[in-house]
Structure formats: structure tokens, C-alpha cells
Amino acid sequence: MHGYIDCHCHISADDFDSDIGDVIEDSKRAGLVALLAVAEHAGEFEKIIQLSQRFPGFIMPCLGVHPVQDPGQPRGASLEDLDAALPLIDKHKDHIVAIGEVGLDFTPRVVNNDAGKDSQRKVLIRQAEIAKQLNLPLNVHSRSAGRPTIHLLKQLGVENALLHAFDGKPSVAMEGVKAGYFFSIPPSIIRSDQKQKLVKQVPLESMCLETDAPALGPEKQVRNVPKNISISAEYIAKIKGIPLETVMEVTTQNALHLFPKLKSFIKP
């Protein structure tokens, strides 16, 4: 399959409401063949499903509960947040390609005590169980919690996981690589020393592409869009000293391997 796959994108964000059609057209022109739309809370599940029906074979839904809830007053996710999501995950289980966005976020303004961290862990454990039951991979967030997230995933016997926009040390990422996990790289790599170091060390065979649009774009505070996926690919090619074509081919094959349902859903 020739083209890019955006493995982690918030296409249901309000930022895209006014021009979603143009954003998708621009993405396709830039070489995207699919994008995985991740959820943060149960309230946006139906919107993601509707977008996947409006753009069939291109927007691929992932449903899950993010470790941070209520962005206005950020707090760690609780099992109550998950309770609202479970019936909808069950309802749409045949149409989703992953459980996500799930994970841990130990940023001090989100959670600053052991009880809060433990609550997030319980939510992740439960979602890992659901993913296993449905034979789906996890689309994982791990801000300020790289090592605890990888250790918990390994402990739970999770085999298929994408660690998106990983902010930990390359040595910690390599523990994930050894466990068979993949790492997706956003366009913000062009302004992030940490992401550049990560790409130097993580093998291309363990890498995918993402935009995390509308966040993590090439410029701070500017809306990121899925067509910027090519910026991630070009920068990886530059760091690794390999052709752009190779980055496109290998990352797309990695995505198809990690998210097997994509093969039957993508419209050629």
C-alpha cells in the first residue's frame, strides 16, 4: 500500500468543525491513505463514529478513555469515566480499530498523589483487558509516565501497543521496543530535541507516523493538520539518513501490522 497512515489524530476536535471536508481533502492530496481518530472521553465517541461513516475507508475510529479528563480543570481519569464509555465501546466494537486513547499521565498539575496515579492505573488495566477480549491493539498516551506505562503494559501481557508522542528517554523507549511496541512520531519533532534523540535510537521497524492534530504541529500554538504527516516522515528520513520512500513504506507496513483491521477497512 502506497501512502501515509496517521496513527493518532484528534479529528473530532472542535478545531476542525468548520472545515473538516477541506482538511480531509488536503490530507489525501498529501498522500494520506488513512487516519486513526482517537477519543478522549465517552462524550465524543458518537462524533468519531459519524466521521468514520462520513469518510468511510479513511477515518478509522479508536474509542477509549484518556488518562486526563476535563481539560478545563485537568484531573486523572476514574473508573466512573470508564463506566460511561463501556456500553458504547461494546456497541461499536466491530467498527473500531483500537482502544484509545488510553494510558497514564503523571504531569503534576493533573495528578500529584499516589491515589490519583492508582486511579489512572485501574482505568488503563480495565481498558487493556477490553482490548484483549476484542483482540484490538492499544493507542497509548504516556506523558511524564513513560517507564510506568511500559512496565504496566508488559506486566499486563499487552502485546500490541502504539506509544504515541513518547516523551521519555530513548533508553526507556528501547524497553518498549524489546516488548514489541511501536512508537509514533508527530510533526513537532522538528522543534523537539527529545523526539530527535528518540528517532536516532528507535529502529524504523518499531516506528509509525502520527500528527496528534490539532496538537503537536511544526509550530507552537498553531493548529496542526493531518497533511503535516509528511513533515514527520521527512524528518525521520533526514535523521536516519534514508530515503523518504523507505520511511513511508516501513511505517505504513508497521501500522498495518499493528492495526490489522485497517487492511479490510481502507478503501483503495
TrEMBL record:
Domain of life where this protein originates: Eukaryota
Binding site for a divalent metal cation 2: 141, 164
UniProt keyword Metal-binding present: yes
GO MF term set: hydrolase activity, acting on ester bonds; metal ion binding
Keyword tags: Hydrolase, Metal-binding
Family from the record: Belongs to the metallo-dependent hydrolases superfamily. TatD-type hydrolase family.
Organism this protein belongs to: Danionella cerebrum
Residues annotated for a divalent metal cation 1 binding in this entry: 8, 10, 101, 212
Function according to Swiss-Prot or TrEMBL: Exhibits 3'-exonuclease activities and apurinic/apyrimidinic (AP) endonuclease (in vitro). Show preferential AP endonuclease activity on double-stranded DNA substrates and 3'- exonuclease activity on single-stranded DNA.
InterPro entries, alphabetized: Metal_Hydrolase, TatD-like
Protein name as it appears in the record: TatD DNase domain containing 3
